[in-house]
Amino acid sequence: MECVKDRLVAYFSMEIALENSMPSYSGGLGVLAGDTIRAAADLRLPMVAVSLLYRKGYFSQHLAEDGTQTEEPVEWRVEDFLHEESPRVTIPLEDRRVELRCWRYDAVGVRGYVVPIYFLDADLPSNALADRALTGTLYGGDPYYRLCQEVILGIGGVRMLRALGHEGLTRYHMNEGHAALLSLELLETEAAKAGRTTIRAEDIEKVRCKCVFTTHTPVPAGHDRFPMEYLTRAFPSQTELFDLKDASAADLVKRVLQAEQAYPDLQQAARAGASLNMTYLALSLSKYVNGVAKQHGETSRQMFPGVPIEAITNGVHAGTWTAPAFREIFDRYIPTWREDNYSLRGALGLPPEEIWTAHLIAKHELLELVRQKTGIKFDPGKFTIGFARRATGYKRADLILADLDRLRQIAKNSGPFQIVYAGKAHPHDAGGKSIIKHIFQAKKALRKAVPVVFLDDYNMDLGGKITAGVDLWLNTPQFPLEASGTSGMKAALNGVPSLSILDGWWSEGHIEGVTGWSIGEARRATPDLVTDNRADAESLYNKLDSVIIPMFYNERYRYLSVMQHAIAINGSFFNTQRMVQQYITDAYMR
Ligand SMILES: *Cc1c(COP(=O)(O)O)cnc(C)c1O
């Protein structure tokens, strides 16, 4: 019997990655959400989660000979993964009512505790054709389509949780600003509870106490923003959206942003602009706000002066991202590691030869996948570098390819190496797409001197295999734009050290020569900061040439020691178990 019956925390996310063949996510945000929920289940945290159902999924990626990316929708059978729940709720949209149902997925923790995830679905015969398509594609459509999706997530989500009987929720956690409209529904609920049809300052204060907001985006342009008239279009003032007599939705948002207790800078911005900034709304209505790494907290505080923004560094779900060969050793030597990720600190005491054997198994699995996908046989004895993440400008996937002659030289001097790439570009991200093409050009030019493969259709399964199966995890974001980054954490759990710019989580996880290596030095985000791609590439080449590759080939015992420290120091800490525990003490219990 469960002693705590009521669910206390509702976690809202536009995307949640649960299974490889469920196309319910596009990348890092969704993977983090899935890992958070799995850790909550492990910890028996009374949480429920809400997202949208994307019948067309996030796309599958096809790459032509020259690296040109095309996208295809992923058809999937919802019923194979999810269970339909009976309640229906409606939300008003323009002059219509949109009916919603939801589908349930159970995340089961290590001790059998279940955290349900509800996927909202508008594809019902009672809805107009256009409305049925609102839960069709993730990050598809135009901005107004996006706003409608956010109405469904925020307002539909709160209503659905109530219809499902989750009456005792005390915290609403918005994973990024997409769910910010949930605060409007909560405001209306507070007013209704007090028997009023007008919002008062005390309602705003009550809602603030319930809301937790995690921001993920270190650049202003990355924050969701809509013209205010979109909100008026979605909710013409005459509808009974909030049963509020005194305000249209747009007025309500303005009042929240300009309430007495609101932040002066946001007030000013709200007065100046005619746009609905989801981040402002979430910041204004959340008592607890955090960035996703210490550096990102700092960047966010600079971006939103006056707003108290804390930091909880991201993690990954250890049980999910540890390769089978490593699970087997951990189960044998550190049997509590799944319930107690901290015990992975004991990895320092593992026999190094067993770590090496497990690593070779993971490497073999990756190289087998490389062969299947590309027909190319990579040499398992060769030093292998991995790079996989969303293809987009600031991630600079092609930084290592800046000087091909230098790469050839390093391979000759220090020892041979090969590179495994993967990553999707967002369908509208022309810059990201051209980076993939650039990698294909370099691959052709390098030929056998430095073999390069690009694996198509990056997904969770591929992510797991690449992070575990390479000898070095490379990350080259443009500082300070990597909010956290999590794939290096997956690598660490599998004993794979990182070589990375000191940004995001790596500013905390890096100990030079102990857990991995840095590219360049630690920096500060000052207004006069300039990015010097050349200098970053130069530092990268130097580390490979003079430190890492020689150590790999000539001092294997030292390389193995770095591998063990990656697990013991970083795997034991940069996991979602530690992260969710911090959310409990800092955000949910406060
Ligand atoms: C882990 C993962 C990500 C996030 O990686 P970052 O290092 O945070 O960019 C994105 N997509 C997939 C499929 C992943 O497995």
In this entry the ligands are: pyridoxal-5'-phosphate
Radius of gyration: 24 Å
Cα-to-Cα separation, first versus last residue:
27 Å
Q: Overall mean pLDDT score?
A: 94
Dominant shape: globular
Count of helices? Answer: 21
Sheet-strand content, in percent, reads 15-25%
Number of strands: 20
Indicate the CATH class of the largest domain.
Alpha Beta
Number of self-contained structural domains:
2
Structural class estimated from helices and strands? alpha/beta
Spell out the CATH superfamily of the largest domain. Glycogen Phosphorylase B
In the predicted model, the low-confidence regions spanning at least 5 consecutive residues are none
The CATH topology of the largest domain comes to Rossmann fold
CATH 2nd-level architecture of the largest domain: 3-Layer(aba) Sandwich
Helix content: 40-55%
Largest sheet: 10 strands, mixed
Explained architecture:
- There is one protein chain.
- Strands 1, 2, 5, 6, 7, 8, 9, 10, 13 and 14 form a 10-stranded mixed beta sheet that branches.
- The protein has 2 domains: 9-314 and 580-588, Glycogen Phosphorylase B (Rossmann fold, 3-Layer(aba) Sandwich), CATH 3.40.50.2000; 318-523 and 530-574, Rossmann fold.
- Helix 12 (324-333) runs antiparallel to helix 13 (352-374).
- The protein has 590 residues and is of the alpha/beta class.
- The chain is built from 21 helices and 20 strands.
- The radius of gyration is 24 Å and the shape is globular.
- The two termini are 27 Å apart.
- Bound molecules: pyridoxal-5'-phosphate.
- Pyridoxal-5'-phosphate is lined by residues 27-28, 31, 389, 458-460, 463, 485-487, 490.
